[in-house]
Predict the structure.
Amino acid sequence: MNGYAGTILRVNLTTGEIRKEPYDPQVARDFLGGRGLGIYTLYNEVPAGTDPLGPENKLIASTGPLSGLLVPGAGKMDWTTKSPLTGGYASASVGGHLTAELKYAGYDSIILEGASDKPVYLFIEDDKIELRDAADLWGKGSMTTEEILKKRLGEDFQIATIGPGGENLVKYACITTDYGRQAGRGGVGAVMGSKKLKAIAVRGTQTIPVADPDRFWDLSHEMYRACKESEALEAWQRYGTTIVTSWCDEVGALPTRNFQQGSFEEGPNLYGQVMRDKIVITDKGCFGCPSPCGKYSYSKKHGVFVEGPEYETIALCGSNAGLSDIEDVAYVNYLMDELGIDTISAGNAIAFAMECFEKGILGPEDTDGLDLRFGNAEAVFAMSERIARREGLGDLLAEGVKAAAERLGQGSADFAIQVKGMEQSGYETHSATSMLLAYMTADVGAHHNRAWAITYDLEVGRDRVAPDKVAKVIELQHIRPLFDALGACRLQWVELSIDVTAYAPMMAAITGIERSWQDLLKISERIWNLTRLYWFREAEAFGRAWDYPPPRFYKEPATGGPTEGQLTTLDAAMQLLDMYYEQRGWDEEGRPTAAKVAELGLSELVG
Ligand code: SF4
Protein backbone atom coordinates (compact mmCIF):
# COMPACT_ATOMS: atom_id res chain seq x y z
CA MET A 1 0.00 0.00 0.00
CA ASN A 2 2.07 2.91 -1.26
CA GLY A 3 1.66 6.01 0.88
CA TYR A 4 0.52 3.95 3.84
CA ALA A 5 2.25 2.03 6.60
CA GLY A 6 -0.36 -0.65 5.92
CA THR A 7 -1.10 -1.52 9.55
CA ILE A 8 -3.70 -0.42 12.07
CA LEU A 9 -3.00 -0.75 15.76
CA ARG A 10 -5.91 -1.80 17.97
CA VAL A 11 -5.48 -1.27 21.70
CA ASN A 12 -8.05 -2.52 24.17
CA LEU A 13 -7.68 -0.58 27.40
CA THR A 14 -9.98 -2.96 29.32
CA THR A 15 -8.12 -6.18 28.58
CA GLY A 16 -4.71 -4.75 27.72
CA GLU A 17 -4.79 -6.64 24.42
CA ILE A 18 -2.80 -5.02 21.60
CA ARG A 19 -3.35 -6.19 18.03
CA LYS A 20 -1.91 -5.23 14.66
CA GLU A 21 -4.34 -5.49 11.78
CA PRO A 22 -3.81 -5.04 8.06
CA TYR A 23 -5.30 -1.84 6.60
CA ASP A 24 -7.95 -2.89 4.06
CA PRO A 25 -6.75 -1.39 0.73
CA GLN A 26 -10.34 -0.92 -0.43
CA VAL A 27 -11.14 1.19 2.63
CA ALA A 28 -8.04 3.28 1.92
CA ARG A 29 -9.22 3.74 -1.67
CA ASP A 30 -12.75 4.70 -0.71
CA PHE A 31 -12.01 6.83 2.37
CA LEU A 32 -8.33 7.84 1.93
CA GLY A 33 -7.38 7.97 5.65
CA GLY A 34 -7.51 10.54 8.47
CA ARG A 35 -11.08 11.59 9.09
CA GLY A 36 -12.25 9.25 6.30
CA LEU A 37 -10.88 6.21 8.09
CA GLY A 38 -12.16 7.69 11.34
CA ILE A 39 -15.83 7.91 10.36
CA TYR A 40 -15.67 4.58 8.50
CA THR A 41 -14.45 2.90 11.70
CA LEU A 42 -16.80 4.80 14.00
CA TYR A 43 -19.84 4.02 11.87
CA ASN A 44 -18.95 0.34 11.54
CA GLU A 45 -17.60 -0.48 14.95
CA VAL A 46 -19.32 1.68 17.55
CA PRO A 47 -22.91 0.56 18.12
CA ALA A 48 -25.75 3.05 17.82
CA GLY A 49 -26.63 4.68 21.13
CA THR A 50 -23.19 4.19 22.70
CA ASP A 51 -22.37 6.38 25.70
CA PRO A 52 -19.57 8.69 24.48
CA LEU A 53 -17.78 8.38 27.82
CA GLY A 54 -18.40 4.64 28.21
CA PRO A 55 -15.91 1.90 27.34
CA GLU A 56 -17.85 0.99 24.17
CA ASN A 57 -16.93 4.28 22.54
CA LYS A 58 -13.73 4.26 20.51
CA LEU A 59 -11.15 6.93 19.91
CA ILE A 60 -9.57 6.65 16.49
CA ALA A 61 -6.31 8.49 15.77
CA SER A 62 -5.52 8.43 12.06
CA THR A 63 -2.82 9.68 9.73
CA GLY A 64 -3.39 10.10 6.00
CA PRO A 65 -1.55 9.01 2.86
CA LEU A 66 0.42 12.27 2.71
CA SER A 67 1.39 12.24 6.40
CA GLY A 68 5.08 11.92 7.09
CA LEU A 69 6.11 12.51 3.48
CA LEU A 70 7.83 15.51 1.92
CA VAL A 71 4.63 17.42 1.24
CA PRO A 72 4.07 20.91 2.71
CA GLY A 73 2.50 20.56 6.15
CA ALA A 74 2.10 16.78 5.99
CA GLY A 75 1.94 16.52 9.77
CA LYS A 76 -1.79 16.42 10.40
CA MET A 77 -3.58 13.78 12.42
CA ASP A 78 -7.32 13.29 12.88
CA TRP A 79 -8.98 12.13 16.08
CA THR A 80 -12.50 10.77 15.55
CA THR A 81 -14.95 9.62 18.20
CA LYS A 82 -18.54 9.94 19.34
CA SER A 83 -18.61 13.37 20.94
CA PRO A 84 -19.46 13.74 24.63
CA LEU A 85 -20.19 17.42 23.90
CA THR A 86 -22.70 16.98 21.07
CA GLY A 87 -23.64 13.30 21.19
CA GLY A 88 -22.81 13.11 17.48
CA TYR A 89 -19.79 13.00 15.22
CA ALA A 90 -16.51 14.47 16.48
CA SER A 91 -13.36 14.85 14.46
CA ALA A 92 -10.49 17.01 15.67
CA SER A 93 -7.41 17.72 13.59
CA VAL A 94 -4.00 18.47 15.06
CA GLY A 95 -0.62 19.30 13.56
CA GLY A 96 2.85 18.75 14.93
CA HIS A 97 5.21 15.81 14.62
CA LEU A 98 3.25 12.90 16.11
CA THR A 99 1.62 11.94 12.80
CA ALA A 100 4.86 11.43 10.92
CA GLU A 101 6.34 9.51 13.85
CA LEU A 102 3.39 7.14 14.01
CA LYS A 103 3.78 6.26 10.36
CA TYR A 104 7.52 5.80 10.79
CA ALA A 105 6.68 3.38 13.61
CA GLY A 106 4.65 1.41 11.06
CA TYR A 107 1.03 2.40 11.82
CA ASP A 108 -1.55 4.42 9.95
CA SER A 109 -4.00 4.54 12.80
CA ILE A 110 -4.56 3.64 16.45
CA ILE A 111 -8.01 2.45 17.49
CA LEU A 112 -8.41 2.86 21.23
CA GLU A 113 -11.23 0.87 22.78
CA GLY A 114 -12.41 -0.20 26.25
CA ALA A 115 -11.31 1.59 29.41
CA SER A 116 -8.51 0.94 31.86
CA ASP A 117 -9.25 0.84 35.59
CA LYS A 118 -6.06 2.73 36.38
CA PRO A 119 -4.11 5.50 34.63
CA VAL A 120 -1.83 4.25 31.85
CA TYR A 121 0.07 5.58 28.89
CA LEU A 122 0.65 3.88 25.56
CA PHE A 123 4.28 3.35 24.61
CA ILE A 124 5.07 2.66 20.94
CA GLU A 125 8.58 2.17 19.60
CA ASP A 126 8.28 0.42 16.25
CA ASP A 127 7.23 -3.14 17.13
CA LYS A 128 7.52 -2.64 20.87
CA ILE A 129 4.13 -1.61 22.18
CA GLU A 130 3.17 -1.50 25.84
CA LEU A 131 0.60 -0.02 28.18
CA ARG A 132 2.59 1.47 31.03
CA ASP A 133 1.58 2.75 34.44
CA ALA A 134 0.81 6.49 34.52
CA ALA A 135 -0.20 6.91 38.17
CA ASP A 136 2.53 9.50 38.69
CA LEU A 137 1.37 11.51 35.67
CA TRP A 138 -2.34 11.62 36.52
CA GLY A 139 -3.31 15.11 37.65
CA LYS A 140 -0.42 16.76 35.87
CA GLY A 141 -0.81 19.37 33.12
CA SER A 142 -0.65 18.47 29.44
CA MET A 143 2.64 20.18 28.68
CA THR A 144 4.19 19.15 32.00
CA THR A 145 3.34 15.53 31.17
CA GLU A 146 4.93 15.86 27.74
CA GLU A 147 8.07 17.29 29.30
CA ILE A 148 8.30 14.46 31.86
CA LEU A 149 7.82 11.76 29.23
CA LYS A 150 10.38 13.31 26.90
CA LYS A 151 12.91 13.38 29.74
CA ARG A 152 12.06 9.80 30.62
CA LEU A 153 11.95 8.30 27.14
CA GLY A 154 14.06 10.63 25.01
CA GLU A 155 13.52 13.74 22.92
CA ASP A 156 12.92 11.59 19.81
CA PHE A 157 9.55 10.50 21.14
CA GLN A 158 6.49 12.38 19.95
CA ILE A 159 3.81 12.61 22.58
CA ALA A 160 0.08 13.25 22.89
CA THR A 161 -1.35 14.01 26.32
CA ILE A 162 -4.46 15.05 28.19
CA GLY A 163 -4.56 17.44 31.14
CA PRO A 164 -6.85 17.67 34.18
CA GLY A 165 -9.71 18.71 31.86
CA GLY A 166 -9.59 15.35 30.09
CA GLU A 167 -9.20 13.46 33.36
CA ASN A 168 -12.26 15.25 34.77
CA LEU A 169 -14.29 14.58 31.61
CA VAL A 170 -14.81 18.21 30.68
CA LYS A 171 -17.00 17.87 27.61
CA TYR A 172 -14.63 19.94 25.49
CA ALA A 173 -11.31 18.63 26.79
CA CYS A 174 -8.60 18.45 24.15
CA ILE A 175 -5.57 16.33 23.30
CA THR A 176 -2.24 18.16 23.19
CA THR A 177 0.96 17.44 21.32
CA ASP A 178 4.14 19.40 20.52
CA TYR A 179 3.86 21.56 23.67
CA GLY A 180 0.80 23.44 22.57
CA ARG A 181 -0.86 21.96 19.47
CA GLN A 182 -4.39 20.76 20.15
CA ALA A 183 -6.87 18.30 18.76
CA GLY A 184 -9.27 20.76 20.23
CA ARG A 185 -12.88 20.24 19.40
CA GLY A 186 -15.72 17.96 20.41
CA GLY A 187 -14.25 16.55 23.61
CA VAL A 188 -11.78 14.03 22.21
CA GLY A 189 -9.67 14.60 25.36
CA ALA A 190 -12.60 13.62 27.59
CA VAL A 191 -12.97 10.34 25.69
CA MET A 192 -9.25 9.69 26.20
CA GLY A 193 -9.70 10.54 29.89
CA SER A 194 -12.68 8.18 30.18
CA LYS A 195 -10.33 5.41 29.07
CA LYS A 196 -7.80 6.49 31.76
CA LEU A 197 -5.25 6.95 29.00
CA LYS A 198 -3.00 9.83 30.04
CA ALA A 199 -0.66 9.88 27.05
CA ILE A 200 0.65 8.21 23.92
CA ALA A 201 4.39 8.23 23.24
CA VAL A 202 5.66 7.21 19.81
CA ARG A 203 9.01 6.72 18.15
CA GLY A 204 9.53 5.11 14.75
CA THR A 205 12.43 4.31 12.47
CA GLN A 206 10.83 2.87 9.36
CA THR A 207 10.08 4.29 5.94
CA ILE A 208 6.90 4.92 3.95
CA PRO A 209 6.70 3.34 0.48
CA VAL A 210 6.05 5.66 -2.47
CA ALA A 211 4.87 4.37 -5.86
CA ASP A 212 6.90 6.67 -8.13
CA PRO A 213 9.75 8.32 -6.19
CA ASP A 214 11.05 10.36 -9.15
CA ARG A 215 7.67 11.85 -9.96
CA PHE A 216 7.02 12.43 -6.28
CA TRP A 217 10.37 14.20 -5.85
CA ASP A 218 9.64 16.56 -8.76
CA LEU A 219 6.12 17.35 -7.56
CA SER A 220 7.33 17.86 -4.00
CA HIS A 221 10.00 20.34 -5.17
CA GLU A 222 7.39 22.14 -7.23
CA MET A 223 5.01 22.49 -4.28
CA TYR A 224 7.69 23.73 -1.91
CA ARG A 225 8.92 26.17 -4.56
CA ALA A 226 5.36 27.52 -4.98
CA CYS A 227 5.14 28.07 -1.23
CA LYS A 228 8.51 29.77 -1.09
CA GLU A 229 7.70 32.08 -3.99
CA SER A 230 4.26 33.05 -2.69
CA GLU A 231 3.94 36.78 -2.10
CA ALA A 232 1.86 36.04 0.97
CA LEU A 233 4.58 33.99 2.69
CA GLU A 234 6.41 36.76 4.53
CA ALA A 235 3.36 38.24 6.26
CA TRP A 236 1.86 34.82 6.96
CA GLN A 237 5.04 33.60 8.58
CA ARG A 238 5.40 36.76 10.61
CA TYR A 239 1.88 36.75 12.02
CA GLY A 240 0.33 33.33 11.41
CA THR A 241 -3.41 33.23 11.98
CA THR A 242 -3.24 36.47 13.98
CA ILE A 243 -2.95 38.21 10.63
CA VAL A 244 -6.77 38.22 10.48
CA THR A 245 -7.44 39.81 13.88
CA SER A 246 -7.29 43.39 12.60
CA TRP A 247 -9.28 42.50 9.47
CA CYS A 248 -12.04 40.83 11.49
CA ASP A 249 -12.22 43.79 13.85
CA GLU A 250 -12.43 46.24 10.96
CA VAL A 251 -15.15 44.40 9.02
CA GLY A 252 -17.19 43.49 12.10
CA ALA A 253 -16.44 39.78 12.39
CA LEU A 254 -14.49 39.75 15.66
CA PRO A 255 -16.72 38.19 18.34
CA THR A 256 -17.05 40.67 21.15
CA ARG A 257 -18.67 40.17 24.56
CA ASN A 258 -20.32 36.87 23.73
CA PHE A 259 -21.01 37.68 20.07
CA GLN A 260 -23.09 40.75 20.84
CA GLN A 261 -21.11 42.60 18.19
CA GLY A 262 -18.27 42.06 15.73
CA SER A 263 -15.93 44.87 16.61
CA PHE A 264 -14.08 45.53 19.86
CA GLU A 265 -13.27 49.11 20.88
CA GLU A 266 -10.01 47.89 22.41
CA GLY A 267 -9.37 45.42 19.57
CA PRO A 268 -6.18 47.12 18.31
CA ASN A 269 -4.42 46.00 21.52
CA LEU A 270 -4.94 42.41 20.36
CA TYR A 271 -3.82 42.74 16.74
CA GLY A 272 -1.15 40.44 15.33
CA GLN A 273 1.30 43.31 14.88
CA VAL A 274 1.05 44.23 18.57
CA MET A 275 1.41 40.63 19.63
CA ARG A 276 4.48 40.11 17.42
CA ASP A 277 6.22 43.14 18.88
CA LYS A 278 5.21 42.51 22.46
CA ILE A 279 5.43 38.80 23.21
CA VAL A 280 6.42 36.61 20.24
CA ILE A 281 9.84 34.99 20.56
CA THR A 282 10.00 32.73 17.53
CA ASP A 283 8.04 30.84 14.88
CA LYS A 284 7.04 27.21 15.27
CA GLY A 285 5.80 24.80 12.64
CA CYS A 286 4.51 21.30 12.06
CA PHE A 287 6.34 18.50 10.30
CA GLY A 288 7.39 19.47 6.78
CA CYS A 289 5.92 22.97 6.97
CA PRO A 290 7.45 25.69 4.77
CA SER A 291 5.29 28.42 6.34
CA PRO A 292 5.21 27.99 10.12
CA CYS A 293 2.15 29.73 11.53
CA GLY A 294 2.82 28.84 15.17
CA LYS A 295 4.00 31.81 17.22
CA TYR A 296 5.90 30.92 20.35
CA SER A 297 5.53 33.63 22.96
CA TYR A 298 6.66 34.70 26.39
CA SER A 299 4.51 36.80 28.70
CA LYS A 300 6.72 38.78 31.02
CA LYS A 301 3.67 39.92 32.98
CA HIS A 302 2.67 36.36 33.83
CA GLY A 303 6.07 34.62 33.49
CA VAL A 304 4.90 31.90 31.08
CA PHE A 305 5.92 30.54 27.70
CA VAL A 306 3.12 29.49 25.37
CA GLU A 307 2.52 28.54 21.76
CA GLY A 308 0.11 31.23 20.67
CA PRO A 309 -2.23 32.80 21.16
CA GLU A 310 -3.48 32.18 17.65
CA TYR A 311 -6.49 33.96 16.19
CA GLU A 312 -9.24 31.74 17.60
CA THR A 313 -7.90 32.07 21.14
CA ILE A 314 -7.55 35.84 20.78
CA ALA A 315 -11.13 36.05 19.55
CA LEU A 316 -12.80 33.74 22.06
CA CYS A 317 -10.66 34.36 25.15
CA GLY A 318 -9.83 37.98 24.30
CA SER A 319 -12.48 40.21 22.71
CA ASN A 320 -15.32 37.78 23.39
CA ALA A 321 -14.57 37.94 27.12
CA GLY A 322 -13.81 41.67 26.92
CA LEU A 323 -10.07 41.22 27.60
CA SER A 324 -7.82 43.75 25.91
CA ASP A 325 -4.28 42.92 27.03
CA ILE A 326 -2.55 40.42 24.73
CA GLU A 327 -0.46 39.24 27.70
CA ASP A 328 -3.62 38.30 29.60
CA VAL A 329 -4.87 36.40 26.57
CA ALA A 330 -1.51 34.62 26.31
CA TYR A 331 -1.85 33.62 29.96
CA VAL A 332 -5.38 32.25 29.46
CA ASN A 333 -3.99 30.35 26.48
CA TYR A 334 -1.22 28.90 28.65
CA LEU A 335 -3.67 27.92 31.41
CA MET A 336 -6.13 26.24 29.07
CA ASP A 337 -3.38 24.40 27.20
CA GLU A 338 -1.88 23.09 30.41
CA LEU A 339 -5.32 22.21 31.80
CA GLY A 340 -6.19 20.52 28.51
CA ILE A 341 -9.40 22.35 27.55
CA ASP A 342 -10.36 23.77 24.17
CA THR A 343 -9.85 27.55 24.10
CA ILE A 344 -12.76 28.02 21.66
CA SER A 345 -15.39 26.20 23.71
CA ALA A 346 -14.00 27.30 27.06
CA GLY A 347 -13.79 30.93 25.89
CA ASN A 348 -17.41 30.71 24.80
CA ALA A 349 -18.48 29.12 28.07
CA ILE A 350 -16.84 31.86 30.13
CA ALA A 351 -18.29 34.65 27.96
CA PHE A 352 -21.73 33.03 28.23
CA ALA A 353 -21.37 32.98 32.04
CA MET A 354 -20.23 36.62 32.00
CA GLU A 355 -23.35 37.65 30.13
CA CYS A 356 -25.47 35.64 32.57
CA PHE A 357 -23.72 37.46 35.41
CA GLU A 358 -24.26 40.90 33.88
CA LYS A 359 -27.93 40.06 33.26
CA GLY A 360 -28.43 38.83 36.82
CA ILE A 361 -29.08 35.20 35.84
CA LEU A 362 -25.97 34.33 37.84
CA GLY A 363 -25.01 36.19 41.00
CA PRO A 364 -21.98 36.31 43.33
CA GLU A 365 -23.49 33.40 45.26
CA ASP A 366 -23.14 31.26 42.09
CA THR A 367 -19.57 32.34 41.38
CA ASP A 368 -18.15 31.99 44.89
CA GLY A 369 -17.83 35.74 44.99
CA LEU A 370 -16.06 36.08 41.65
CA ASP A 371 -16.88 39.31 39.83
CA LEU A 372 -17.65 37.67 36.51
CA ARG A 373 -18.09 40.79 34.40
CA PHE A 374 -16.71 41.19 30.89
CA GLY A 375 -13.16 42.44 30.93
CA ASN A 376 -12.14 40.91 34.27
CA ALA A 377 -9.02 38.94 33.38
CA GLU A 378 -8.62 37.50 36.88
CA ALA A 379 -12.12 36.03 36.61
CA VAL A 380 -11.22 34.36 33.30
CA PHE A 381 -8.07 32.86 34.84
CA ALA A 382 -10.05 31.55 37.81
CA MET A 383 -12.89 30.15 35.69
CA SER A 384 -10.41 28.31 33.44
CA GLU A 385 -9.15 26.43 36.49
CA ARG A 386 -12.62 25.81 37.87
CA ILE A 387 -13.91 24.41 34.58
CA ALA A 388 -10.98 22.01 34.23
CA ARG A 389 -11.35 20.85 37.84
CA ARG A 390 -15.18 20.98 37.73
CA GLU A 391 -15.34 23.21 40.78
CA GLY A 392 -18.45 25.27 41.59
CA LEU A 393 -19.90 27.00 38.52
CA GLY A 394 -17.07 25.42 36.52
CA ASP A 395 -18.80 22.06 36.84
CA LEU A 396 -21.83 23.41 34.97
CA LEU A 397 -19.77 25.24 32.33
CA ALA A 398 -17.73 22.07 31.75
CA GLU A 399 -20.89 20.62 30.18
CA GLY A 400 -20.89 23.24 27.38
CA VAL A 401 -23.10 26.27 26.83
CA LYS A 402 -26.07 24.34 25.45
CA ALA A 403 -26.38 22.20 28.59
CA ALA A 404 -25.62 25.19 30.83
CA ALA A 405 -28.40 27.25 29.21
CA GLU A 406 -30.85 24.37 29.56
CA ARG A 407 -30.06 24.27 33.27
CA LEU A 408 -30.10 28.04 33.87
CA GLY A 409 -33.12 28.92 31.70
CA GLN A 410 -34.33 32.56 31.90
CA GLY A 411 -33.80 33.09 28.19
CA SER A 412 -30.11 32.23 28.32
CA ALA A 413 -30.48 29.77 25.41
CA ASP A 414 -30.85 32.81 23.15
CA PHE A 415 -27.27 33.80 23.83
CA ALA A 416 -25.72 30.33 24.11
CA ILE A 417 -23.68 30.57 20.91
CA GLN A 418 -23.66 27.01 19.63
CA VAL A 419 -24.90 24.71 16.88
CA LYS A 420 -25.53 21.01 17.55
CA GLY A 421 -24.13 21.61 21.04
CA MET A 422 -20.72 22.83 19.88
CA GLU A 423 -19.69 26.38 20.74
CA GLN A 424 -19.09 28.66 17.76
CA SER A 425 -15.56 29.54 16.73
CA GLY A 426 -14.20 33.01 16.06
CA TYR A 427 -16.40 34.72 13.47
CA GLU A 428 -19.36 36.90 14.37
CA THR A 429 -22.24 36.08 12.03
CA HIS A 430 -25.08 38.55 12.50
CA SER A 431 -24.51 39.55 8.89
CA ALA A 432 -22.47 36.98 6.95
CA THR A 433 -24.85 34.47 5.43
CA SER A 434 -22.31 32.04 3.95
CA MET A 435 -20.32 31.90 7.17
CA LEU A 436 -23.51 31.49 9.18
CA LEU A 437 -24.57 28.61 6.92
CA ALA A 438 -21.11 27.10 7.27
CA TYR A 439 -21.59 27.05 11.04
CA MET A 440 -25.15 25.72 10.78
CA THR A 441 -24.13 22.80 8.60
CA ALA A 442 -20.60 21.93 9.76
CA ASP A 443 -20.54 18.23 10.55
CA VAL A 444 -19.13 18.61 14.08
CA GLY A 445 -21.12 21.67 15.15
CA ALA A 446 -20.31 25.36 14.88
CA HIS A 447 -16.71 25.10 13.74
CA HIS A 448 -15.11 27.27 11.05
CA ASN A 449 -12.55 24.87 9.69
CA ARG A 450 -15.03 23.02 7.44
CA ALA A 451 -15.80 26.15 5.41
CA TRP A 452 -14.13 29.49 6.03
CA ALA A 453 -16.63 31.42 3.93
CA ILE A 454 -16.46 34.85 5.56
CA THR A 455 -14.24 36.34 2.85
CA TYR A 456 -16.79 35.29 0.24
CA ASP A 457 -19.49 37.11 2.22
CA LEU A 458 -17.45 40.28 2.12
CA GLU A 459 -16.71 39.81 -1.56
CA VAL A 460 -20.26 39.31 -2.86
CA GLY A 461 -22.48 40.97 -0.27
CA ARG A 462 -22.57 39.78 3.29
CA ASP A 463 -26.34 39.57 3.80
CA ARG A 464 -27.31 38.16 0.40
CA VAL A 465 -29.31 34.93 0.42
CA ALA A 466 -28.62 33.30 -2.93
CA PRO A 467 -27.64 29.94 -4.45
CA ASP A 468 -24.04 31.00 -5.13
CA LYS A 469 -23.50 31.67 -1.43
CA VAL A 470 -24.72 28.18 -0.62
CA ALA A 471 -22.65 26.62 -3.41
CA LYS A 472 -19.52 28.29 -2.03
CA VAL A 473 -20.11 26.71 1.38
CA ILE A 474 -20.55 23.25 -0.15
CA GLU A 475 -17.47 23.69 -2.34
CA LEU A 476 -15.39 24.60 0.71
CA GLN A 477 -16.91 21.77 2.77
CA HIS A 478 -15.51 19.36 0.22
CA ILE A 479 -12.09 20.91 -0.27
CA ARG A 480 -11.08 21.83 3.28
CA PRO A 481 -12.00 18.59 5.08
CA LEU A 482 -10.34 16.63 2.27
CA PHE A 483 -7.03 17.74 3.78
CA ASP A 484 -8.06 16.07 7.05
CA ALA A 485 -8.41 12.81 5.15
CA LEU A 486 -5.09 13.26 3.33
CA GLY A 487 -3.21 14.07 6.55
CA ALA A 488 -1.88 17.43 5.42
CA CYS A 489 -2.37 21.11 6.19
CA ARG A 490 -4.75 23.19 4.08
CA LEU A 491 -3.15 26.52 4.92
CA GLN A 492 -0.56 26.44 2.13
CA TRP A 493 -3.54 26.49 -0.25
CA VAL A 494 -5.68 28.90 1.78
CA GLU A 495 -2.98 31.40 2.71
CA LEU A 496 -0.24 30.97 0.10
CA SER A 497 -2.64 30.23 -2.78
CA ILE A 498 -0.75 27.22 -4.10
CA ASP A 499 -2.63 25.24 -6.76
CA VAL A 500 -5.00 22.96 -4.87
CA THR A 501 -5.44 20.62 -7.85
CA ALA A 502 -1.71 19.77 -7.58
CA TYR A 503 -2.65 17.41 -4.73
CA ALA A 504 -4.17 15.01 -7.29
CA PRO A 505 -0.95 14.19 -9.19
CA MET A 506 0.86 14.25 -5.85
CA MET A 507 -1.50 11.57 -4.53
CA ALA A 508 -1.06 9.57 -7.73
CA ALA A 509 2.74 9.67 -7.47
CA ILE A 510 2.56 8.51 -3.85
CA THR A 511 -0.15 5.85 -4.04
CA GLY A 512 0.19 4.73 -7.66
CA ILE A 513 -3.55 5.27 -8.14
CA GLU A 514 -4.39 7.85 -10.81
CA ARG A 515 -7.27 10.02 -9.61
CA SER A 516 -8.33 13.47 -10.72
CA TRP A 517 -8.95 16.35 -8.34
CA GLN A 518 -12.68 15.83 -8.94
CA ASP A 519 -12.29 12.16 -7.95
CA LEU A 520 -10.75 13.25 -4.64
CA LEU A 521 -13.55 15.75 -4.06
CA LYS A 522 -16.09 12.98 -4.64
CA ILE A 523 -14.44 10.96 -1.87
CA SER A 524 -14.67 14.01 0.37
CA GLU A 525 -18.38 14.25 -0.44
CA ARG A 526 -18.75 10.56 0.46
CA ILE A 527 -17.12 11.21 3.84
CA TRP A 528 -19.31 14.28 4.41
CA ASN A 529 -22.49 12.34 3.72
CA LEU A 530 -21.43 9.47 5.97
CA THR A 531 -20.90 11.88 8.86
CA ARG A 532 -24.41 13.24 8.23
CA LEU A 533 -25.88 9.74 8.27
CA TYR A 534 -24.02 9.10 11.51
CA TRP A 535 -25.82 12.07 13.08
CA PHE A 536 -29.17 10.69 11.94
CA ARG A 537 -28.29 7.37 13.54
CA GLU A 538 -27.09 8.81 16.86
CA ALA A 539 -29.03 11.97 17.71
CA GLU A 540 -32.65 11.84 18.76
CA ALA A 541 -35.01 13.49 16.24
CA PHE A 542 -32.04 14.64 14.21
CA GLY A 543 -32.97 16.87 11.31
CA ARG A 544 -33.45 20.49 10.31
CA ALA A 545 -33.87 21.75 13.87
CA TRP A 546 -30.30 20.68 14.57
CA ASP A 547 -29.06 23.00 11.82
CA TYR A 548 -30.67 26.15 13.25
CA PRO A 549 -28.33 29.08 13.92
CA PRO A 550 -27.80 30.41 17.46
CA PRO A 551 -30.90 32.55 18.22
CA ARG A 552 -28.79 35.63 18.93
CA PHE A 553 -28.10 36.03 15.20
CA TYR A 554 -31.75 36.15 14.19
CA LYS A 555 -33.35 37.62 17.32
CA GLU A 556 -31.02 40.43 18.42
CA PRO A 557 -29.26 42.84 16.06
CA ALA A 558 -25.53 43.43 16.51
CA THR A 559 -25.01 46.13 19.11
CA GLY A 560 -22.02 47.95 17.63
CA GLY A 561 -19.32 48.09 14.97
CA PRO A 562 -19.79 48.00 11.19
CA THR A 563 -22.73 45.57 11.44
CA GLU A 564 -24.58 47.47 14.15
CA GLY A 565 -28.33 46.95 13.89
CA GLN A 566 -28.01 44.02 11.49
CA LEU A 567 -29.15 40.41 11.84
CA THR A 568 -30.10 37.46 9.64
CA THR A 569 -33.80 36.63 9.99
CA LEU A 570 -34.85 33.08 10.77
CA ASP A 571 -36.72 33.08 7.47
CA ALA A 572 -33.49 33.90 5.61
CA ALA A 573 -31.67 31.16 7.51
CA MET A 574 -34.37 28.65 6.51
CA GLN A 575 -34.08 29.72 2.87
CA LEU A 576 -30.35 29.06 3.08
CA LEU A 577 -31.04 25.60 4.48
CA ASP A 578 -33.61 24.85 1.75
CA MET A 579 -31.07 25.71 -0.93
CA TYR A 580 -28.33 23.83 0.88
CA TYR A 581 -30.34 20.61 1.21
CA GLU A 582 -31.40 20.81 -2.42
CA GLN A 583 -27.89 21.40 -3.74
CA ARG A 584 -26.59 18.53 -1.63
CA GLY A 585 -29.27 16.07 -2.75
CA TRP A 586 -30.80 15.80 0.72
CA ASP A 587 -34.48 15.81 1.71
CA GLU A 588 -36.23 18.70 3.50
CA GLU A 589 -35.00 17.45 6.90
CA GLY A 590 -31.45 17.29 5.64
CA ARG A 591 -31.20 13.52 5.24
CA PRO A 592 -29.19 12.27 2.25
CA THR A 593 -31.66 10.73 -0.19
CA ALA A 594 -31.39 7.08 -1.23
CA ALA A 595 -30.23 8.27 -4.66
CA LYS A 596 -27.42 10.34 -3.13
CA VAL A 597 -26.40 7.48 -0.84
CA ALA A 598 -26.25 5.14 -3.85
CA GLU A 599 -24.37 7.67 -5.98
CA LEU A 600 -21.67 7.87 -3.30
CA GLY A 601 -21.41 4.10 -2.92
CA LEU A 602 -22.62 4.13 0.67
CA SER A 603 -25.76 1.97 0.35
CA GLU A 604 -24.17 -1.24 1.57
CA LEU A 605 -22.35 0.44 4.44
CA VAL A 606 -25.36 2.23 5.90
CA GLY A 607 -27.90 -0.51 5.10
FE1 SF4 B 1 1.25 23.57 10.89
FE2 SF4 B 1 0.64 26.16 10.52
FE3 SF4 B 1 2.39 24.99 8.93
FE4 SF4 B 1 -0.18 24.36 8.75
S1 SF4 B 1 0.75 26.36 8.29
S2 SF4 B 1 1.55 22.92 8.75
S3 SF4 B 1 -0.83 24.47 10.92
S4 SF4 B 1 2.62 25.33 11.14
